[in-house]
Specification:
Pfam families: ATP-synt_F (PF01990). GO terms for molecular function: proton-transporting ATPase activity, rotational mechanism. Keywords: Ion transport, Transport. Belongs to the V-ATPase F subunit family. The mean pLDDT is 86. The chain has one domain: 3-Layer(aba) Sandwich (Rossmann fold). With 101 residues, it is an alpha/beta fold. Helix content is 47%, strand content 22%. The chain has five helices and four strands. Strands 2-1-3-4 form a four-stranded parallel β-sheet, sandwiched between helices.
C-alpha cells in the first residue's frame, strides 16, 4: 500500500523527502488531474491532500470521502497552515486509519 500526496510545492516536497510520491498543484485543473492519477493506481491506499487543494475539487473529494472505503482520503493543512482551527495532523491520521501513532 502506497501513500500519495497532493498539495502545494512545499508540502509535496516535504513528503517526497520522506519517500511519499506526490504532485504539486496550483489550480483546480491540476488538482483534478492529480486526484485522477492518484485514483488510477490501485496501490495508492492513502491519498493525502492539503485543505487548499481539496477545496479546489471539494465536490469530488467529498463524494469519495462519503461513498468509498478505499482509498482513504486524509486532508491535512498545507504549508500555509490550518484553514481554520482544526485537529493536528497526528490526530487526523489516527482517526482516519484507526491506529494510534
Amino acid at each position: 500500500m502506497n501513500y500519495f500526496i497532493i498539495g502545494d510545492d512545499d508540502t509535496v516536497l516535504g513528503f517526497e523527502l520522506a519517500g511519499v510520491f506526490g504532485i504539486a498543484v496550483d489550480n483546480a485543473e491540476q488538482t483534478d488531474a492529480a486526484f485522477s492519477k492518484a485514483l488510477e493506481d490501485s496501490n495508492n491506499g492513502i491519498i493525502i491532500i492539503t485543505e487548499q487543494a481539496a477545496d479546489m475539487i471539494r465536490d469530488r473529494v467529498d463524494k469519495l470521502l462519503f461513498s468509498a472505503a478505499f482509498p482513504l482520503i486524509v486532508e491535512i493543512p498545507g504549508s500555509n497552515g490550518l484553514k481554520e482551527e482544526r485537529k493536528d495532523l497526528r490526530t487526523l491520521v489516527n482517526e482516519a486509519i484507526g491506529i494510534k501513532l
